[in-house]
Amino acid sequence: MILQRYLLREIAQACLMSLCVFVAVILALFLAELLGDAAQGQLPTGSVFFLLVLRVPEALLLVGPLALMVGVLMALGRLGESSELVVQRASGLAFPAVFAPIALWALLWSAGLLLVSGWAGPAAYERSSALMTELARTALVSGIRSGQFDPLDGGRITLYVGSIDRESGQLGDVFVHLDDGEEYEVLSAPRGRVWIDDVDQRPFLTLYEGRQLRHVGQLSSAKRRQIEFSRNDVRLPAPKLSGGQADELRLRLPELLPLDSPQRFHEWHWRWASPLAAFLLAMLALPLAQVGPRQGRFGSVVLALLLYLFYTNLVYAALVWMERRELVGGPGLWPLHGLVLAGVVLFLLRQWRRW
């Protein structure tokens, strides 16, 4: 039907414009975070843009439901303000004919968010984690200055290198002083390298063909032991980088099954929260958008924002409660979504009778 295609086109344009605006705001916040790391020398400047692109799925999940709701409100509000909906109702357009394109668009939007939550987000997380691992090594190597003593880990480790290859992480003429309060160690080696462990993602300094001098007790009466080694691994403090994705996006949605741990149970409901909230809020926007010809449409937008904040805060409060209780079974967030769905159905039936 021509009018239904017209409604679908108007709503789609408004929703996409709202999405672009909201995603741009969230990405600006992410960009400020990444630029802060780059200014402190923890990130290469050239990697900031790529890391920002990898956080687009996270931004979509944050603002996707709000963008859909605001888009539907703005599109229907504009049609109501210009009396187009009044003309359509007078010409015999039934309420289901108006509801159908909105429901179809909301389903497509929610399906897109589910794809982002279940597959695109984890793929971006995997790529971001690999990049952050490499950047962690690069940041650690770039923080080491040849010909100077560099204190690390709050002064527990003092490192001196005579030369450094920042591309490969190879070090020359390495001197390390370790102090844990009870034992003191001095290590020296003609060469070494910095690398990242694949298991726990912690950085290590490996020394080759060197010597180790250990002091146990106070320096005045310490027992000394000197050994020679072919290889010695020293664990270094991990650089604190904030450019990664949310930890909840590690696994793809099917990989979370079975829900046999509190972490998987919590993450399962978190993944479904954004797509379900988008659909329910879009359905709620239909009765909220019905205003008179001379009434402004921005009042309904403010009300919609308040409802969005109330709903999303309830969702995150329930997720926090589930995490603290370490729940593995039970209804989870489904009663909350069901309660909102019941309210949406009541509002739609009321609007249908008034149509």
Structure description:
The chain is of the alpha+beta class and 355 residues long. It has helices at residues 2-39, 48-54, 56-81, 84-90, 95-143, 262-288, 298-325, 334-354; strands at 149-152, 157-165, 170-179, 183-196, 203-216, 223-235. The mean pLDDT is 86. It folds into two domains: 2-139 and 244-354, no CATH class; 143-235, no CATH class. Helices cover 57% and strands 18% of the residues. A six-stranded antiparallel beta sheet has the order 1-2-3-4-5-6.
Which helices and strands, and how do they pair?
Layout: H1 2-39, H2 48-54, H3 56-81, H4 84-90, H5 95-143, E1 149-152, E2 157-165, E3 170-179, E4 183-196, E5 203-216, E6 223-235, H6 262-288, H7 298-325, H8 334-354
Antiparallel strand pairs: 1-2, 2-3, 3-4, 4-5, 5-6
Q: What share of residues are in beta strands?
A: 15-25%
What is the averaged pLDDT score? 86
The gross shape turns out to be: elongated
The total of beta strands comes to 6
The percentage helix is 55-70%
Helical segment count: 8
User: How many individual domains?
Assistant: 2
Query: Based on helices, strands and strand pairing, what is the structural class?
Result: alpha+beta
- Largest sheet entry: 6 strands, antiparallel
> Can you list the strand order of the major beta sheet?
1-2-3-4-5-6
pLDDT below 50 for ≥5 consecutive residues: which ranges? none
Intertermini distance = 19 Å
Report the order of strands and helices. Answer: HHHHHEEEEEEHHH
Query: What is the radius of gyration?
Result: 29 Å
